[in-house]
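Contributing: when you submit paired examples, paste them exactly as shown. First protein:
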Amino acid sequence: MESSDALIARFLALHPKTIDLSLGRIQRLLTQLGNPERRLPPVIHVAGTNGKGSTIAFMRAILESAGLAVHVYTSPHLVRFHERIRLGKFGGGQYVTEDRLVEAFRRCEAVNNAEPITVFEITTAAAILLFAEEPADVLLLEVGLGGRFDATNVIDKPAAAVVTPIGHDHAEYLGTTLQAIAKEKAGIFKRGCPAIIAPQDYVEADQTLVSEAERIGASPIHVGQQDFSVHEEGGRLVYQDEKGLLDLPRPKLIGRHQFTNAGTAIAALRAAGFEKFETSAFEAGLSRAEWPGRLQRLSKGRLPEIAPPGCELWLDGGHNADGGRVLAAAMADQSERSDTPLVLIAGMLGTKDAQAFFKNFSGLAREVIAVPISGQIAARPAEEVAAIAGSVGLTTTVAASVESALASLHKYVWDRPPRVLICGSLYLAGEVLAANGTLPE
């Protein structure tokens, strides 16, 4: 049987560009497939620059804790394409199997009949086909890039549309100003549907999202309008809206930003009609949520055995300025609990603002060990990553791989074993999980 990887490789020849934001091609294909997008369970559509995946992880954990079957579509994957498509089942969903994925790809390929279409568009159509044919209670649908012209934006009436915190990223596709980026993200808002606007880091993004929701005729649900609030109190998460107050445990996902993501998830679920859940479902969901490659502690596997004894090993795929900011804040919080030297092992793509990312760690990281990202044409050479980190005052060295970077830490005499953060790219995160033998499940 032809593999899904072989089919994806063949899809690459269908369009000269990897990214070409448009809805016409996927709408054509979905029509030829019999419009499966009209036969989906209730959809919660999620856009944003940072926090999309974590917000979806919290929603899935809460919904499954309440006994519901949850379909999930996310991107990119870390190790295998199958991670993008989780088919919901009672008691917990599973990644799509190779057989079902190949079958869906073949059906889409046959109907498309070699017409121009991007890989993301045809694979999104395949995912929608699978979601339409497998019963579930809800579909959590993550935008690939932007919102307005993203291939996922074929849902006429979502149960809710969510925009997580917005920052600068993908300027070549979405624009160079926060207003322009926010307008693209707000393209998933639909008339008469709840529009959940997460607490934003920038006033101009916040204002644009609210004004776009109102212009479209969506129903904005917004912290600034006191529709909901979320904060930490005594190490717990306190959420409140017009439906009442929830006093919940600290989210399992690490970092103060996860309080915001968890609160946004709760607001979205309650707006989408899931407000009657028992408090226990919210408690269990926050305590169980997992999202690989995002401040993930690597305590088992091959890589911790290479590092110095007692070393803490963390992994995160954040790669833009705001991702670096919340990541540095999370590491600073860890340092307050235990004053341990921080070492970064970092690889980055040439399309990302590496200087803005590393500035967040100035005065916090003891050293940056720059590494290449294998198999990525757009990856910066390790020497270039080191030079950029050095330009913001960080001490830097270069290593040939993550494994050799970890091994190099043995040459130092540490007062306390270091805290090591592998960061800078989701591609690097996927490479690390594969090398460690701890694949996403």
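Second protein:
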Amino acid sequence: MVGGLSTSKALRILRGLADLNIVGFDVMEVSPAYDQSQLTALAGASLALEFLYMRASRG
């Protein structure tokens, strides 16, 4: 896909993996120097936060 996944698709994929015992998560390709509108940084932070919510909900 040109331009990569949309944030909503990436969140759907991440939420679909909620039942797996995933212990690590890495956010890549976020470069504040080239992200003038900070949309990429916000998307990366949203995905990382969603992962933390998933981990916390497992107990």
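If you have annotations for the second protein, write them as plain sentences, like these:
The chain has two helices and no strands.
The helical segments are 7-16, 39-57.
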